């Protein structure tokens, strides 16, 4: 909801002729509809409408301080327990649109109360920078969120009174580091990041998708690098990871066609109803695309990336691929120096903006019958040195596998045999791993760690909360399909579309 004057601040035109002079009239600018039994199923009405802040109608015009929470129930809990004006973010922990920032300019103090899970805490620094670090105070609580704090009969006013401003970006206090380390000890699965639902075995090695990292993917030409990244990007995006694609080798139209086919799980040709259904679901995903193609100045790409992070709260940026982006820029050894300089800029950007950047780098020319290694990555050693993760998609004599050759998070390396399913245009694990198996493997590893360190287990089941939400893929009976690269399990033909890519906002 918003007053007419608020709409004017946000640049939204409203018809005020019917009630001219009523300065306190509120307008319903948009509706959020959410399922009662499954909070992951929600939609915003109308599509592409203007933004607003839930609870804004309770904020006095003379108020100078405000509590900003992640969800609507949290805002109501804060207001009920403290009487303080409280509003919630428009669409969860990854959504603070620039359009609503003018509404918050008049407040001298803003208390930012995000959920204590990894998604909420990842957004704290970014939102504090958007709101202004000098006036933003971060609320910390042992409860998951403000609503849980109220249900647990905790003192919400005390938590707000203890809120602290974000320290200098380049200075960390031990107290802050102590909290972060304790969080990793008690909730290791939360620190692992967002899990993959389409390649569960990847979770056993990488442990999850994490912000602030750089991943380098390499592999021979035509082996399926773009197919793999397209699949994984939809996977994570459907779980709320706002994504920016930079495709410098293939046009965005072809890339999106591939994505829609993967999301539908079958070809879309001659099936207009399925295309419309898939496109409607895809439209709800926080997925964005760079318009650059072919040789492009690195600084122009960085400028677009910075805007996307600010305007759309992007968390994952994919650049496919470095050679096409820098083609024709430099000759001889100069092109290696230019590539190193670009990699250095991307590394700094990922760390400074706390986003994950995935880079596709072609390998050097190698013999067709030998596996690629870290030294096979084109250019100098800087690409693999700067990267937190290095993945190599191998394909020899029709056999395909994904090698994890570098993993800075915990050092686990290994290989995942893969097979291509032409019907869905997806890569599948040749030896199927179910999501519960992958969760159990990660949980078991962390449980051993807790026992060795004599650390009490967390009270909540983080596996079900982080990995299996916001949606659990439907379990279907596998069928055997013969392909040129061997037998593997794929889902039954009657599997519901989008079962592995169910978006946060659905019909």
TrEMBL record:
Domain SF4 helicase per the UniProt entry, residue ranges: 188-434
InterPro entries, per database record: DNA_helicase_DnaB-like_C, P-loop_NTPase, TOPRIM_DnaG/twinkle, Twinkle-like
Domain of life according to the entry: Eukaryota
SUPFAM superfamilies registered for this protein in UniProt: DNA primase core, P-loop containing nucleoside triphosphate hydrolases
GO molecular function, one term: single-stranded DNA binding
GO biological processes: DNA replication
PANTHER family, per the entry: T7-LIKE MITOCHONDRIAL DNA HELICASE (PTHR12873), TWINKLE MTDNA HELICASE (PTHR12873:SF0)
Protein name: SF4 helicase domain-containing protein
């Amino acid at each position: 909801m918003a007053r007419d004057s608020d709409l004017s601040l946000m640049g939204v035109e409203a018809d005020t002729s019917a009630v001219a002079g009523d300065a306190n009239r509120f307008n319903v600018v948009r509706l959020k509809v959410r399922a009662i039994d499954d909070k992951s199923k929600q939609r915003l009405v109308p599509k592409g409408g203007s933004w607003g802040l839930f609870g804004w109608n309770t904020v006095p015009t003379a108020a100078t301080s405000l509590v900003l929470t992640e969800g609507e129930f949290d805002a109501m809990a804060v207001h009920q327990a403290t009487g303080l004006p409280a509003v919630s973010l428009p669409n969860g922990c990854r959504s603070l649109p620039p359009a609503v920032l003018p509404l918050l300019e008049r407040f001298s103090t803003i208390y930012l109360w995000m959920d204590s899970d990894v998604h909420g805490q990842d957004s704290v620094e970014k939102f504090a920078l958007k709101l202004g670090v000098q006036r933003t105070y971060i609320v910390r609580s042992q409860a998951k969120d403000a609503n849980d704090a109220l249900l647990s009969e905790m003192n919400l006013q005390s938590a707000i009174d203890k809120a602290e401003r974000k320290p200098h970006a380049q200075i960390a206090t031990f107290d802050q580091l102590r909290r972060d380390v304790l969080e990793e000890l008690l909730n290791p699965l939360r620190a692992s990041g967002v899990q993959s639902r389409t390649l569960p075995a990847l979770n056993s090695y990488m442990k999850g998708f994490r912000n602030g990292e750089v991943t380098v993917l390499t592999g021979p030409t035509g082996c399926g690098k773009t197919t793999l990244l397209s699949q994984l990007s939809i996977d994570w995006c459907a779980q709320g990871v706002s994504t920016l694609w930079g495709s410098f080798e293939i046009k965005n139209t072809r890339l999106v066609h591939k994505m829609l086919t993967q999301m539908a799980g079958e070809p879309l040709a001659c099936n207009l109803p399925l295309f419309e259904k898939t496109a409607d679901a895809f439209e709800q995903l926080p997925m964005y695309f760079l318009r650059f193609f072919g040789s492009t100045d690195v600084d122009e790409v960085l400028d677009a990336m910075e805007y996307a992070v600010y305007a759309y709260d992007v968390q994952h940026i994919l650049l496919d691929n470095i050679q096409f982006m820098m083609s024709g820029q430099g000759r001889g050894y100069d092109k290696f120096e230019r590539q190193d300089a670009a990699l250095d800029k991307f590394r700094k950007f990922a760390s400074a903006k706390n986003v994950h950047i995935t880079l596709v780098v072609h390998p050097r020319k190698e013999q067709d019958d030998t596996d690629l290694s870290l030294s096979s990555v084109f250019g100098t050693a800087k690409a693999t040195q700067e990267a937190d993760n290095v993945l190599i998609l191998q394909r020899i004599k029709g056999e395909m596998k994904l090698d994890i050759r570098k993993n800075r998070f915990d050092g686990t390396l290994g290989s995942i045999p893969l097979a291509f399913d032409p019907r869905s245009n997806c890569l599948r694990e040749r030896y199927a791993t179910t999501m519960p198996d992958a969760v159990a493997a990660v949980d078991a590893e962390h449980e051993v760690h807790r026992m060795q360190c004599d650390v009490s287990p967390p009270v909540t089941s983080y596996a079900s909360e982080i990995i299996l939400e916001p949606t659990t893929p439907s379990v279907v009976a596998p069928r055997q399909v013969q392909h040129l690269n061997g037998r593997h399990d794929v889902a039954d033909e009657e599997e519901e579309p989008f079962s592995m890519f169910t978006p946060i906002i659905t019909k």
